[in-house]
Each structure stands twice: as C-alpha cells, then as structure tokens.
Amino acid sequence: MSIETVTTQPIAGQKPGTSGLRKKTTVFMRPGYLETYVQAVIEGVGGVEDREIVVGGDGRFFNDTAIGIILRMLAANGASKAIVGQNGLLSTPAASNLIRKRRAFGGFVLSASHNPGGEHGDFGLKFNVANGGPAPEPVTDAIFARTLDIASYKIVSEPAPDLSEIRTSSLAGMTVEVIDPVADYVAMMEGLVDFDRISKLFASGFAMRFDAMSAVTGPYAKAIIEGRLGARPGTVINGTPLPDFGGHHPDPNPVHAAKLFALMFSGAAPDMGAASDGDGDRNIVLGRGISVAPSDSLALLAANIHLAKGYKAGLKGIARSMPTSRAADRVAAKAGVEGFETPTGWKFFGNLLDAGRVTICGEESAGTGSDHVREKDGLWAVLVWLDIIAARGESIAEIVKSHWATYGRDYYTRHDYEAIESGLADKLFADLRDSIQDLPGKGFAGLTIETADDFAYTDPIDGSTSAKQGVRVFFTTGERAVFRLSGTGTEGATLRVYLEAFEPDPARHDLEPQQVLAKVIAAADAIAQIRERTGRTAPDVVT
Ligand code: G1P
Ligand code: ZN
C-alpha cells in the first residue's frame, strides 16, 4: 500500500451548516477541495483509525467520484472498513439506519438534499456520528477549526473498487463492503408499519402516486410500495435516480412538484399523492383536493402514531423546530406528553431522541421522523400515513378535517425570498434584531405586537446553548411571524418568513391560508421592511 501525503491549503470559511457543507458542485470539484475538507472532517471527528465508516449519497453528479476519493482517504487514514451502498447510493435515512445497525463510528452522507444537482448544480457532504444523526455542534466546530489550519491530506494511490456489484473487497488494507442500499431499510420499515394491513388497502383499490423526483428514494419506494405492498406498477414515478434529477429541483413543494399538486387537485386524482426529495429525508403528503401542510402532518402523525404497528406503546413526547407551527404542541398538551421547541435543523432532535424524551419530531420544511433513525425520513412518513389510513378507513381529507375539528387549525405559510444580495440581507436582519426590544406594543397592518425575541435554545439533555436562531414576533391576537436567514443556500442569502394564525372554529377551517394570513403577512413585511429594502414585490417560493 502507498499512502501519499499531499500538501494543501486551509479552506477558510467552510463552516458546516445545518446539514453539513453545501457548495456549488464546481467548488467541490476544484483540485484538492473535497480532499482537504474530508481530511478536516476525519481529523475533526478524532480520526478514523480502526473505525468502520458508512459511505453513500443521493446519486447526484460527482457522487461516485467523490466516494472513490473518500474511500481512498479513509484507507489512508487507517479505517478498518467502509460500508458503501451499491453504486454509491444511500438515502439519508437509510445511511442513518445503517450506521446504527452496524454500530459504525459514523458515516459520510453525500447530498445537497433538495438543491438541484448536476455539474452546475449543488453538492454537499455531511458527517453523521455513531447515533446515526448529523454531527452535533461541538463536532462541526472541531471540523471547522481543522479547515482553518490544515496543511495536508492523506490518500492511497490504489484506485477505489468498483461499486456496481454487491461484494466485499480490500482497498490498501481497508475492507470495502458494498451492500444492497435498500434491504436493511425495508426490514426496518416492516417492523414499524403493518405491511399486511397496507397491502389490503392497496388490494381494495386504493390508488396512489409517489413522485421520487428522479432522486434516491425511487429504488426504496419501488421495493416497498410496489414490491412489498402490491401497489399498481407505475405508482412510483420518476423512480430512477439521475445525476441531475432530470434537470429539476428534487424538492417536494408546490413549485417543484407542481405536476403532482395539479394531479391531486384534478378530477383524476388518486386517493393519495406523495413525494420525497433528493436524498429521501423530506416528504409531502396530499389527499384528493388537499395538500397536508408539513406542520399539520407532524401533528397528525403524532396524534395517530399509536395506530401504526411499531408505535403501539404510544407517544413519549413531540419535538418541533421553532418555525414549525404550534399544531404539534396542541397534540402534546392533549396527550399529556412533553412538547419541545428546538432550533431549525435535525441535529437538535438527536439528544431528545437518544434520551427517549420524544418519539416523533418534525419541521415545517417537509421533514418528519421518529426515534427509528436520527434523520428525518420521507418514505417512513408516507408509510406511516398509509398505515394510519388503513387503520382508520378514512380518506386523507377526512383525517385532516377531523384533526382540525378536535384541535383547531393552525393556518400556516412560509414565504421565501431567495438569492438576496448577502450584505443587504445581513443588514436587514441586523436591523430587525436591533429593533426587537422596541417592537412590543407597536401596531403593524392592524395587528399589535405582544412580544418579540431572538430565539435561543438550551438543550435539556446536555445544557448546550444555541443563540440567535431566528426572530419571533407574537401578536396580541395570537398570530406569529418568524424571520430566519437560511443556512443551506448556495447563492446569496435566502430570507424565510414563517406566518401562522390559529383558528378554533370548524366553520372557518376551509379558508385559503394566504387570505386568512393576509394581515400577518403584511405586518411581517412592514416589520422587516422586506419590500422596501429588497425591492422584491413577492416571495419567490410560497409553501
Ligand atoms: C432548511 C430547512 C430546515 C432543514 C434544512 C435541512 O434549512 O428550513 O428546516 O432542517 O433545510 O434540510 P435552512 O435553509 O432554512 O437553513
Ligand atoms: Zn433532504
């Protein structure tokens, strides 16, 4: 074996964000860039000598090349084994499961999630730790520190093995086990939802369309929904992972999954529509003529989770990210379990899940998951929905409406302003922060502010604190507006504005969210002076 030590330069400013490091693909492809970052990760996590590491990604452009480099670097850094998905594929939840099941030291997950792929798209790399979840802040801080003074990286000169066949080989003394990326995941799902009950649902004529968006979930969804549950062939569309996702954004929202949304609101709608994102951790669920808001989906799954096969013991607690609507809190209160409000990003759920304080958690950004892994899990959410539908014998619309009748409806929307010039966005946000203490008592667009703060979180398990997690504005009449700058964009800054209002009266549960929220939308715009400062007249994406 021949280990090369290659001289390199620090890569300043490459701080891993809420989901690892995300950059333009061309940046990752710069000579030595990926290598330098991977070496910083390896050192930041305390080295990989004699460790087993899981490696896989969402199949986007550069996935296979990057995996080859990572394997050669793991071998050079003394890892004992790499467990790799066939063809380099692993959905993010499947990678999380594999790390846990194999008791691996951690894993490299290659993905830029729902961002577009391809040579001119985005690429990303994340390290997950032994619990299967994204590296917590102390670890990402250590990785970041290494990027600042790194001087060399190690790589073996032997080529990485072919990943197209399921087999075990050796790379310069490190075992490389290529595994079926789907099998372990299917086995896990079989324990969590009732495959027999769902098969009967499909056999009775239940029709579904699952849009895998030409991303990594295709093989998983086909194997389970069509293969095991007997849904009609063709139920899963765009089921083959493509390096550029067919030129689309693999993001299951009304803009990028427009065809699915149109179908579900047409006369030809099947009983259920669903989609997942690039790396398979996000999901959207639609019924005939209704799209389930992700915040509602979290609340609904929580309220019904005891019906699903693997959750008969019921709920321990529920966690939601701060910008997610308060619908989940109502379920927690009624069930008499703890409800947690965490900063944006799945990593904040890890400690709560590890400590057994919560069963289910979710984010407004189409993410839901449970204690089965330490990532959100798109296909899991869809399967639990199916299990609940089969158990209740009701349509999605009926289930959603009866939930609102019981708990009230939290009208909700998120407005994104994308690719704002960074300096301008930073200034807007700094000024908003500075104004917080003066906001209470002030009126905007007919609403009066009761309180406002910059969300800070203290982890109840390890006591660590995270400040400046987003500005929250509460109005005297119960509405809420939240402002955040995205941590996952790769072009300029993205301002996210989250708006919600609670409506207890079932007679008012069928209104248009944008109309119900018109006042709080206008108030938010005035508070942060969004139009005035950015010149934008409308958000780029409304979800
Ligand atoms: C976005 C979502 C957030 C999610 C993250 C990773 O982050 O808003 O909920 O955890 O992607 O999927 P943001 O761009 O807002 O920082
Ligand atoms: Zn994702």
Account of the protein in words:
It is a single chain. The chain has 543 residues and is an alpha/beta fold. The protein has 3 domains: 3-181, Alpha-D-Glucose-1,6-Bisphosphate, Chain A, domain 3 (3-Layer(aba) Sandwich), CATH 3.40.120; 185-407, Alpha-D-Glucose-1,6-Bisphosphate, subunit A, domain 3 (Alpha-D-Glucose-1,6-Bisphosphate, Chain A, domain 3), CATH 3.40.120.10; 409-542, TATA-Binding Protein. Helix content is 33%, strand content 26%. The chain has 18 helices and 27 strands. Strands 2-6-5-3-4-9-8 form a 7-stranded mixed β-sheet, with helices on both faces. A 7-stranded antiparallel β-sheet has the order 20-21-24-25-26-19-27. Strands 11-10-12-13-14 form a 5-stranded mixed β-sheet, sandwiched between helices. Strand 8 and strand 9 (174-179) form a beta hairpin. Helix 2 (33-44) crosses helix 3 (63-76), helix 2 crosses helix 5 (137-149) and helix 7 (195-203) packs across helix 13 (378-392). The longest helix is centred in the last third of the chain and has 15 residues, at 378-392. The N and C termini lie far apart (53 Å). The model has no long low-confidence stretch (mean pLDDT 95). The structure holds 1-O-phosphono-alpha-D-glucopyranose and zinc ion. Zinc ion (ZN) is lined by residues 113-114, 277-279, 281-282.
